[in-house]
Amino acid sequence: MNENFMLNIVYIITRSDVLGGASVHLLELAKGMISQGHQVHILVGGAGAFTEELKKNHIDFSSLKHLKREISLAHDVLGFWEIKKHLKQLKPDIVHCHSSKAGLLGRLAAKSLNLPVVFTAHGWAFTDGVSPRKQKIYATLERFMTKFSDHIITVSEYDRQHGFKHNVGTPELVQTIHNGVPDIKTSASEKSSSIVRLIMVARFEDPKDQYFLIQALSKLPAHLTWQIDFLGDGPNLQKCQELANHENLDSKIIFHGQSFKVKEFLNLADIFVLISNYEGFPLTILEAMSTSLPIIASDVGGVKESVSSKNGYLIPKRDIDILVQSLQELIVDKNLRLQLGNNSRHLYETQFNFNTMLHKTLDVYTQVLSMRSLK
């Protein structure tokens, strides 16, 4: 396929109500593809924070009435026909689905029209942490769906191997392309030396565990001067606020709710924390690495592919003692923070920058279309 060939790409994603990892990834990917001269249209369930961002960035999209996260036979059947109708009108060269439900309905609709289709799994629906019964159902479904996939992308090697463990896909079909994020480092701002600023950026809903982090923060020695910014909202926010209040940490813990100033907060921070019960491959860690921050994160999912002792601390799941110890070490030692933060930045520049991800994804499209033309 000619390198200069301009593609008509349709992306499909389930949710528009939140700006989570998958939607942020897709937003940047769409912007990147448009900057390369390709035509992009996004099909998305409903309207909300994500569609507002699409409007701001002048990206074409259609809101689908029946594409919903919840399983509902009536909506899912109607969702399939709705996607199929749009694909018929848009006549894309390639369809690229993101998130589980869009991946299911989008692949079926694309295949019914004989369109080439790629699926990105942003963490499998049968990931560790999901009940064994659900794991079995989702893994069976994903095994079936490989027949309707020209290529599958996982955002971490952990997910790729986890898929193989459940007999989902083959090494030829499934490829890891690590998430990459645009550079958000600004010119070095003079950070306050007296108060060490921590930050966690995540929705207050499972699988994230801000509650556990607050429990750990409450065990830090009283003389340490620190403050943490929590960015995000969600169903678990209130109980976290209540815990902070109960532990008399109101002056040190600031809840900002959903914020669109993540870059600004990261550039002012000294330490990035992400405590979770399960993960795919978190984008927020890469954004923090781009701003030269040391990382403290739970050792779950593909996190260890971006965090190691070189640039931070991996916390065994639910190990409060190691979490408290790691927080204390980094709060106390400024030189260690700077050293680990510089390593974070180097890793970001060499492995997780946005252009690497963009061009690897384009290579997948080229490969899929070339294979198609040989058939």
From TrEMBL:
SUPFAM superfamilies on file: UDP-Glycosyltransferase/glycogen phosphorylase
Gene Ontology MF annotations: glycosyltransferase activity
InterPro entries for the chain: Glyco_trans_1, Glyco_trans_4-like_N
Keywords: Transferase
Residues annotated as domain Glycosyl transferase family: 198-346
GO biological process assignments: carbohydrate derivative metabolic process
Keyword Endoplasmic reticulum: no
Pfam families in alphabetical order: Glyco_transf_4, Glycos_transf_1
Segments forming domain Glycosyltransferase subfamily 4-like N-terminal: 20-181
Presence of keyword Transferase: yes
Gene3D superfamilies: Glycogen Phosphorylase B
Name used for this protein in its record: Glycosyltransferase family 1 protein
Organism per entry: Alkanindiges illinoisensis
